[in-house]
Protein 1
Amino acid sequence: MIPGGIRNPRQMEMMMRRLGMTNEPLEGVEEVLIRLKDTEHVFQAPEVSVLTVQGVRTYQIVGNPEVRPRTTDGSATAAAAPGPRGPPEEDVALVIEQAGVSRDEAIEALAAADGAPAEAILHLLSRRGAPGGE
């Protein structure tokens, strides 16, 4: 409780400044995600304030979170997270050039060879040389 009763906002701001505190709104926040071991708390369009006290920043989030389970294999978050998929482009190009196959065949061969380009090329070349394909 504040000594002396209720104060107006201007007095509160002056007192905070004297104590070395600042409180600023963080504009343009679209989403806040808090990941726990078993769940995720997702705040859509929350109000976020940054309180700085003696150089330490504390974030205050105001909103209603959607609480959803977090899978242990990461499939729920991995599907939403953008990122590179499949083998590196250099490896795909190398397999295409050396084995003379299509892009899809090169990617399949790299996946079967656990990403090893040399093994993928050898597999494709040996398959081509075998009678009747595989």
Note: The first strand starts at residue 21 and ends at 26.
Protein 2
Amino acid sequence: MNLATFALIVTGVLLNAGAQLLLKAGVRPLGPLTVGWDTLLPTALRVLAQGPILAGLACYVVSVGVWIVGLSRVEVSLAYPMLSLGYVVNALAAWWLFGEALGPARWAGMALILAGVFVMSRS
């Protein structure tokens, strides 16, 4: 995988991770959501009225486009494991931005993910 292709794949991963973080930021002010047939439409409208939700959805759209370009250049069996980098990015960003806990098991899991991605990228 050359540097330009790697950059496309990582950009897609970062956009996807950013989308998750924006979605979380958008629902935080709303609190726990209750969805049922009688609350579906009002809840959807409340969610879609949040700017971070719309930005997160936009990130998803752009990430899919970037990902498609990346997949046109590299085998999916090599690209797809790179998506796991999103977990590491999200865990660290959620810890920093939202104060989410990162215990020893999560740190160990992130280290294993990074090692696995490194090994896969060298094949």
Note: The chain has one domain: 3-121.
